[in-house]
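#onboarding

Welcome to the new folks! Below is a worked example of what a typical request in this channel looks like: someone posts a single protein sequence, and someone else replies with the predicted structure as tokens. Don't worry about understanding the tokens yet, we'll cover that in week two.

Example request:
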Amino acid sequence: MKRFIKIIFAFVLIITAFVLKTLWNAGTFTKIEPHFDGKIKELPGFNGAEDITIDKTTGLAFVSSGGFIANAPNGNIFLIDCTQKAPKPVNLTAPLTLTDFHPHGISLFQSPEGEKRLFVVNHKKNRTSIEIFSFQDSILTHLETINSNLFASPNDLVAVGERQFYFTNDHDEEISEWRSKKDLLQIPMGNVGYFDGSKVKIMADGFLYANGINVSNDGQKLYVAATSGRKIVVFDRDILTGNIKESSEIAINGADNIEIDESGDLWVGCHPKLLAFLAHAKDHSKLSPSEVISVSLKTGAPAIKSIYLNDGTQLSGSSVGAVWRNKLLIGSVFGDKVLLCTMKQ
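Example response:
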């Protein structure tokens, strides 16, 4: 009888520890104290702004906008000119005949010759593809669609060549009831893939929700957000072969998309309370806190600073913070606006 009681007690302890770990990873115990040192202007007219990337040479920002719901209408790519005091978003995809376009993660690549290409994760109704556009004279032109069976559940990507890119699968399988159960059990299903211009291969796996991805300005580091894993995984990258090797981790709560500024600092859109974000995803009227943090790696050890934090009343479910000079653009998965923030210098 005593042995049976000990077994029951041990089982209860394990379950309790698992529940506490799950709540901790979800940021349930995180205290929200709103702050931002600067001015904020709201730019309306979006159906979500899940990802934003800025051309460092021009200050032009590209915004991925599309509703993450069943049977959503076509999404769009918008352009915001950060050099203007009161910019008006321009719909770059409106003139294009894209019949099944639902953008998610985006990445801008500039060749040594100055040619610019925008790479887009496109969640089509039957499969997900990667779309490549050229960008010239404020005009997007569709160039190519890339498909692969290894695009299981692509979330974000980073272009490293005219046709080469890394991408994240937040899960290694499509949406199903079983996948949801594995999420609940915190079974790592995310991975990182690489398209070398001819074939796709998986480069790393074992992520708890692989999300945002980016490369350092010199191309020698690859950064991957593991949202549920509460970290960003850093890889050393071989520029010639594309091979990567894990080198370190940065502890980040609820990291989503990763952007990199002119100095090489990381800017990360975060979900400080993941369970609140899941509730917000099901019912947009429920608030989800938003946060943008910066990560400086100049001194060796990561210097992490919270730049923007809000309880969700101003913007719920932030997914990206992109920076150009003293301008910070904050987007969210489901919101109808982008925040244009001017930081004090």
